[in-house]
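User: Teach me something about this protein's shape.
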Amino acid sequence: MQSLIGNDQGVMHGVMYQHSTLKEVLATVRAFLTEFQTEAVLIRIQPESFEKNTVNQMVQSLIGNDQHVWVTSGMPNMGQVRGKIVFLQKSTFTLGIPLIDTDGKGQTKVTNVKDKDNRIIKQLNQATEACGGDNEVLTYTSGTGFGTFWGMFLTPKRVAEKVNPWFNQYLRQFYPNQPRPCFGIIAMDFPGIDLIQTVINLNW
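Assistant: First, the predicted structure itself:
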């Protein structure tokens, strides 16, 4: 997810300025997709403050009529979006596919890892119920203790080191299920190859 700040379209990730603009981000993604044309990159833009009323025009002016950017609200199949940037709607940004976000307010704040595990299970259940419509469904397994007293030492990497092995085993229990459950998009921090392969296997 990217947040836009200011007329120069500076990019933020949470509270962290990324020392880049949206134009530069799109150029980087286009270069990646030129090299790896079977891939697709999903981008969710969250407008901030004064950009909320102008975000669609700002982004449209950057992409023009680029046929390698998906801006329609219809749900594509993978074949339709290979080699393309796919925008996801957020707030007043209405280009691309409508999005259901299972993360409620404060869901990424972590003070207890076991509580985070339980929240992920709840979010995946919500994702399963929401799948199959005209929306993409997004669940985050990432989190941080930054900004909390009890979790002040739980960096995103430390949270991932504790959550990811558990999450890998949790997902594997669904291997025998036919049909496999639909969890939508799962966004993770620092996933290892085993966890990535588990997610891939659930799609076959």
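Now, about its shape. Residues 43 and 106 are 21 Å apart (CA to CA). Residues 2-88 form one domain. If you'd like, I can walk through any region in more detail.
User: That's plenty for now, thanks!
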